[in-house]
C-alpha cells in the first residue's frame, strides 16, 4: 500500500498537535504541586529561666490569630517570600500552642507582612529582650511567617536579651 505525502503530513501534524495540546496541562500540573505539605519539626522554646517547651510538631503554613495581632496568613507567601504556601516557624509555634495548650501573642506589622512574637507562655520580651527565631541553629534572615521549614528542621524560639 502506498501512502501519499499529504496523508503523512496530516498524521504528523495531528501527532504534533496532540503532543503540544498535552504539554501545557503537564506543565501546569507540575507547577501547582502542593508545597504546603505538613512536615514534622522539632520545636524548642527557651525562656530566660529555662525550657518552656520542647517537642515534635507537625505543621504547615496557615492563618494565625493572636490577641494583639488579629488573624493573618502565615504561610510563607508573606512579603512575597515564596510563590506558594509552605510550612513556617510561626505556624509551627501556633500549632504547638494549640495542641499543647499554651499561649503566645504577637503584634502584626503590615509593613513587614509578618508577626513579631512578643509573648510565649506568659514570658514577654518587653523592652529588655525579644524572641529570636532560629532554624537548625541559625537565626532566620526573614520573619517567622516567611521562612520555609523542611521535614526534620530544628526550630527554636529563644528569649534573647538586648
UniProtKB/TrEMBL annotation:
PROSITE patterns: TAT (PS51318). It comes from the Bacteria. Residues 114-160 form the Transcobalamin-like C-terminal domain. Keywords: Signal. The keyword Signal applies. It holds the Pfam family DUF4430. Gene3D superfamilies: 2.170.130.30. Residues 1-27 form the signal peptide. The keyword Nucleotidyltransferase does not apply. This is Transcobalamin-like C-terminal domain-containing protein.
Amino acid at each position: 500500500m502506498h501512502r501519499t505525502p499529504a496523508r503523512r503530513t496530516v498524521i504528523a501534524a495531528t501527532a504534533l498537535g496532540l503532543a503540544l495540546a498535552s504539554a501545557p496541562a503537564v506543565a501546569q500540573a507540575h507547577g501547582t504541586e502542593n508545597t504546603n505539605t505538613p512536615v514534622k519539626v522539632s520545636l524548642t522554646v527557651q525562656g530566660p529561666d529555662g525550657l518552656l517547651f520542647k517537642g515534635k510538631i507537625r505543621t504547615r503554613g496557615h492563618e494565625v490569630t493572636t490577641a494583639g495581632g488579629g488573624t493573618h496568613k502565615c504561610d510563607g507567601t508573606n512579603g512575597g517570600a515564596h510563590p506558594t504556601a509552605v510550612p513556617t516557624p510561626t505556624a509551627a509555634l501556633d500549632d504547638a500552642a494549640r495542641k499543647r495548650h499554651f499561649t503566645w501573642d504577637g503584634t502584626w506589622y503590615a509593613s513587614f507582612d509578618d508577626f513579631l512574637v512578643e509573648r510565649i507562655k506568659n514570658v514577654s520580651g518587653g523592652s529588655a529582650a525579644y524572641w529570636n527565631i532560629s532554624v537548625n541553629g541559625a537565626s532566620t534572615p526573614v520573619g517567622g511567617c516567611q521562612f520555609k521549614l523542611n521535614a526534620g528542621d530544628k526550630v527554636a524560639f529563644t528569649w534573647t536579651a538586648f
